[in-house]
Design goal:
It contains 12 helices and 8 strands. The chain is of the alpha/beta class. Bound molecules: the ligand O=c1ccn([C@@H]2O[C@H](COP(=O)(O)O)[C@@H](O)[C@H]2O)c(=O)[nH]1. This is Orotidine 5'-phosphate decarboxylase.
Length: about 290
C-alpha cells in the first residue's frame, strides 16, 4: 500500500487539527448571491470571502465547482478565493471533473498549479488522467459512483466479469494510486455502494458529496468515506445558501434574532450550517 502523498498528509493534518471532515462546497451561483454583493467588482469573490470567514474553522477543505467560475471574472474570483482559503490554512479541491486525450489533459492538469486537488473523469482511461496522476504533491479524486439520480445508467452496468462498472473504476483507481495521491468520488446517496467500495479499496480516501441538499446518508458517508481517518464529506448549497430563508425573512420586515445587517446574515447562517454539519459528522467518526 503506498503511503499518502503530500496532499493527503496535509489533508490529514487539517482533519486532525480542526477535528472536521467537512468539505465546504463553494458553488457561488451568481443567481443566488445576496443582492447587496452584486455591485461589488467580483461578486462571487466577495461572497466567497464572507463564506470563508464564517466557515473556515469547520472546514477540512473548500471545494469550488469549476462550473460556477468558467468565465473571465469567474477565474479571477476563483484565484482570489483559493489564495484566501490558503491564507486561512485550508486546502482547496477544484471540482472540475476533467479528462481528455493526453495532450489536452496535460493542459487541464495545469489547473493543479493553483489548487491542491482536483476531481477527474476516468471515462477515457488511464492516459487521460496521467497528467493529473503524475503530479506527486497533488490529489486526484476519480469519479466512481456519483450521487445523481442517473448515476446507475452507466456506472451500474454489469461487466462480463459480473462486477458493476463502478467497481472496475475503483479497482483501476487503486492501481493508478502509485504515488498515494488518488481518492474516489462516491455519493452519499448510494450508501450500499459506499460500503461495498470501502471494502474493495480500503486504502483510498473518498470525497463523498450528496449530504445536505441531495439528502444523502451522512452516517454512511462518514462510516465508509474515510481511509485511515482521511476523507471528505461535502455539502455546498446546504452551507453557503443556508441564510436564504433568513434573508427573505429580514427583507420582508420580519423580526427575529437573525435580523440585522443583511450583509452578514447569510455569512452567519453559513457558519452555523458548517458547524452543525461538522458536529453531526463527528458523532459518526470513530
Ligand atoms: O457525484 C457527485 C460529484 C460531484 N458533485 C458535486 O458536489 C457538489 C454538491 O452540491 P450540493 O449543493 O451539496 O448538492 C456540487 O458541486 C456537485 O456538482 C455531486 O453532487 N455529486
Amino acid at each position: 500500500m503506498p503511503e499518502f502523498n503530500a496532499f493527503f498528509e496535509r489533508l490529514r493534518e487539517r482533519i486532525d487539527s480542526r477535528d472536521t471532515v467537512v468539505s465546504v462546497g463553494l458553488d457561488a451561483d451568481i443567481g443566488r448571491i445576496p443582492e447587496q454583493l452584486l455591485d461589488k467588482d467580483l461578486p462571487r469573490w466577495a461572497f466567497n470571502r464572507r463564506i470563508i470567514d464564517a466557515t473556515h474553522e469547520y472546514a477540512a477543505c473548500y471545494k469550488p465547482n469549476a462550473a460556477f467560475y468558467e468565465d473571465a471574472d469567474g477565474w479571477r474570483s476563483l484565484r482570489e478565493t483559493v489564495a484566501y482559503a490558503h491564507g486561512k490554512g485550508v486546502p482547496v479541491l477544484l471540482d472540475a471533473k476533467r479528462g481528455d486525450i493526453g495532450n489536452t489533459a496535460r493542459k487541464y492538469a495545469e489547473l493543479l498549479e493553483h489548487v491542491d486537488a482536483i476531481t477527474a473523469n476516468p471515462y477515457m482511461g488511464r492516459d487521460s488522467l496521467e497528467p493529473f496522476l503524475s503530479k506527486p504533491d497533488k490529489g486526484v479524486f476519480v469519479l466512481c459512483r456519483t450521487s445523481n439520480p442517473g448515476s446507475a445508467d452507466l456506472q451500474d452496468l454489469e461487466l462480463d466479469s459480473g462486477e458493476p462498472l463502478y467497481r472496475r473504476v475503483a479497482a483501476l483507481a487503486d492501481l493508478w494510486n502509485e504515488r498515494g495521491n488518488v481518492g474516489l468520488v462516491v455519493g452519499a446517496t448510494a450508501p450500499d455502494e459506499l460500503e461495498e467500495l470501502r471494502e474493495a479499496v480500503p486504502d483510498l480516501p473518498f470525497l463523498v458529496p450528496g449530504v445536505g441538499a441531495q439528502g444523502g446518508d451522512a452516517e454512511a458517508a462518514v462510516e465508509h468515506g474515510l481511509a485511515d481517518g482521511v476523507g471528505l464529506v461535502n455539502s455546498s448549497r446546504g452551507i453557503i445558501f443556508a441564510g436564504e430563508d433568513r434573508e427573505a425573512h429580514s427583507a420582508s420586515g420580519g423580526r427575529s434574532a437573525e435580523s440585522g445587517d443583511p450583509e452578514e446574515t447569510f455569512a452567519k447562517a453559513s457558519g452555523q450550517a458548517a458547524k452543525r454539519l461538522r458536529d453531526r459528522l463527528n458523532q459518526y467518526r470513530g
